[in-house]
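pls design
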């Protein structure tokens, strides 16, 4: 399982910055993850999803990807030519 907390900051016209994590609304694009009401994304498998974060009249998509750990992987790219 994996988890990732989101940071949601509202910036107002007067310059004030407010932590909006608990006031935002979250929508998950792919069923590989869930989001708690305080903005923590959790899932059970690798993959990609988009979380739509909405606060007041604004919305922002957040693209997330989890790649499984492959501790024995060795990169075998092309040989250098220069």
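designed seq:
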């Amino acid at each position: 399982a994996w988890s990732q907390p989101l940071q949601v900051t509202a910036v107002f016209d007067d310059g004030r910055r407010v932590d909006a994590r608990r006031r935002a609304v979250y929508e998950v694009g792919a069923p590989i993850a869930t989001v708690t009401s305080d903005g923590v994304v959790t899932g059970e498998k690798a993959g990609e999803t988009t979380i739509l974060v909405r606060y007041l009249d604004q919305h922002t998509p957040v693209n997330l990807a989890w790649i499984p750990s492959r501790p024995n992987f060795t990169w075998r790219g092309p040989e250098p030519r220069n």
